Write the structure tokens for this entry.
Amino acid sequence: MKREAVWKDHTIIPERETLLENVTTEVAVIGAGMAGILTACFLQHHGKHVVVLEADRIGSGQTGNTTAKITIQHGFLYDTLIRTYGKKKAADYIRANQQALNLYEQFIKEKQIDCNFERLPSYLYSVEDRELLIKEASAVASLGVPSRLVSDTKLPFEHVGAVCIEDQAQLEPLRFLKEMSKELTIYEKTKVLSVSGHKITTDRAEVQAEYIVIATHYPIINLPGFYFMRQHQERSYVLALSGADRLHGMYYSADKDGISLRSFGDFLLIGGGAHRTGKLRGSCGYTALRQKAEKYYPTCKEEYCWSAQDCITHDNFPFIGRYSIFRPYWYVISGFKKWGMTSSMLAAMLISDEICGRKNPYRQLFSPQRIYPVAAAKNFFIDMGESIKGLSEGAMQIFSKETPRCSHMGCALQWNPQEKMWECPCHGSRFGEEGSLADNPAKYGIKHF
Ligand SMILES: Cc1cc2nc3c(=O)[nH]c(=O)nc-3n(C[C@H](O)[C@H](O)[C@H](O)COP(=O)(O)OP(=O)(O)OC[C@H]3O[C@@H](n4cnc5c(N)ncnc54)[C@H](O)[C@@H]3O)c2cc1C
């Protein structure tokens, strides 16, 4: 069994040079994941001179560990959106994501990208709450998108039905990224240490840019922006099994501890075990996911296992737009809530329109400067509570070496025994057993282990 994403075994993306000399460009994009690469492609297509700076390798972040379902069905969402924001905003959200989904197909056809792109139905199922599904099906239909409530699916366990939306898609993320990144100027192993005005300082050189797009998954600049107070990270786990029947569709659970499923070639990918980063419980992680895999697919074999995390905002919308009113030439892409495929394409559309001076009808909906509804207050207070707890525990540990502290803001780290990693429950940074940095927003490892 391999402890890496199945895509990594199937695609090798050629290495790029490290930035060793100072450069000047119109746009610098920081981060070569799905969001950064697509945004850079759009900007270059519109005639901008673009340079991409990547701390590690192209697609080495969350994008290399995604399950790459490209769908407008983002879990149990549209009933909540309509009730919280009204029909117009919910309809704009679904339309914007539909446009993003269609653009994948358009690029893949135009550029003849061989990345196993398939149009398939997407199912939101539940094992316990049919009422929830009825509400969601009617919410989606009221937004003008055909959807049906079905009872019969290919799931190997009992459930109370599923909301089906036809014509969604899945692909192989690294093969797609490999082709999309071919014509871009990308510097790998080039870590951005700071951004000040139009100057970016990397570990070996400096970049001067008219516009700067921060597509580092979790924003790496604390102030201005305050993104560390506006979202948290959630980790999920994936297994690739051999020996299962091929699924004609993608499945996602509306229940708290449910699993998601899709096929890739001869493999069945099962995702789940989610928890707030730094808060692994017995009912989460690989242990919980493996129990389900063994129960539902007892004859199958685990071939790969991996995990990843994503940023969860307080109001269900990602942050796509100006980083802060104090830096109108900086842009941010973050907060995808595990729906980063359509959201990355959306980000590329929105940010390239902003930089090229074109109006985009969805600008305000995803703007990081939007006003939050009262309903988002609960999530804000939960995240604040976690941060205060983590920071005060961290402060008490200053003179002790028993519990290490995060290099981001000093919060006390928690041990994840299933992954053998130190994790920050406040903002989601992660470190190896010896203190090496694995996930941002921290920019450095921890030396005093
Ligand atoms: C288990 C799991 C399954 C998922 N499945 C789906 C799915 O089926 N469908 C879907 O729509 N979404 C899914 N998602 C969400 C999706 O994978 C992510 O939202 C998306 O990949 C994020 O892309 P990104 O470009 O923002 O981030 P990343 O891919 O993480 O890219 C950010 C890049 O920035 C670089 N970077 C960071 N700091 C610096 C620095 N200081 N200097 C330079 N570079 C830096 C990193 O190395 C990285 O390469 C899933 C998420 C998880 C956790």
